[in-house]
Automatic annotation (TrEMBL):
Gene3D superfamilies: TolB, C-terminal domain. Pfam families: Ldl_recept_b. SUPFAM superfamilies: YWTD domain. This is LRP1B protein. GO terms for biological process: canonical Wnt signaling pathway. One of its GO terms (molecular function) is Wnt receptor activity. One of its GO terms (cellular component) is plasma membrane.
Length: 179
């Protein structure tokens, strides 16, 4: 799945398949400017920062179990969000500090460091990397991902795929070639 935020005419947090199909709103109320987004892949939770409401909130992948982690002036101007173990990590764009927030009680907030020009944060750790299984976009014997000439996108599950073409090309009637 692909998770993303939108704060155009109607602010929301959404998800869809990697090929853009099955687009679903998971949060569309009491939300104004959702910016940073982070996933808890193990427990299937979506965390986001709303910079207008000065809040960090969470829902499960279906948009249920919503609650506020932390709200208020102390988390104003956040950008970037990452989750690891018991904490959320974010960047305060006002003073360029890296913050650590306890994701279960929201009361334990610590400034860890200052970085010039920091706008995003990521946690790279072996335990956060999911195991890769055989999937529909694996390279075939002819060197084509999923049998697609240009681009292979996973669809509703790891066994299904959709072929797409680079800009300037159209997908052939066979659903794999590009012209």
């Amino acid at each position: 799945k692909l998770f993303f935020t939108d704060y155009g005419n109607a602010a929301k947090v959404e998800r869809c398949d990697m090929d853009g199909m099955n687009r679903t709103w998971i949060v569309d109320s009491k939300i104004e400017q959702p910016t940073a987004l982070a996933l808890d892949l193990v427990n299937k939770y979506v965390y986001w920062v709303d910079i207008y409401l000065d809040s960090v909130e969470v829902v499960d992948y279906q948009g249920r179990k919503r609650h506020t982690i932390i709200k208020g002036r102390q988390i104003r101007h956040l950008c970037g969000l990452a989750v690891f173990e018991n904490y959320l990590y974010t960047v305060n764009s006002d003073n360029l500090s890296i913050l650590r927030i306890n994701r279960y009680n929201g009361t334990d907030v610590q400034s860890l460091a200052r970085l010039d020009n920091a706008k995003e944060i990521r946690v790279y750790q072996k335990r956060t990397q999911t195991a890769v299984r055989s999937h529909a976009c694996e390279v075939d014997p002819y060197g084509m991902p999923g049998g697609c000439l240009h681009i292979c996108l996973l669809s509703s599950n790891y066994k299904a795929r959709t072929c797409r073409c680079r800009t300037g090309f159209i997908l052939g009637s066979d659903g794999r070639s590009c012209k």
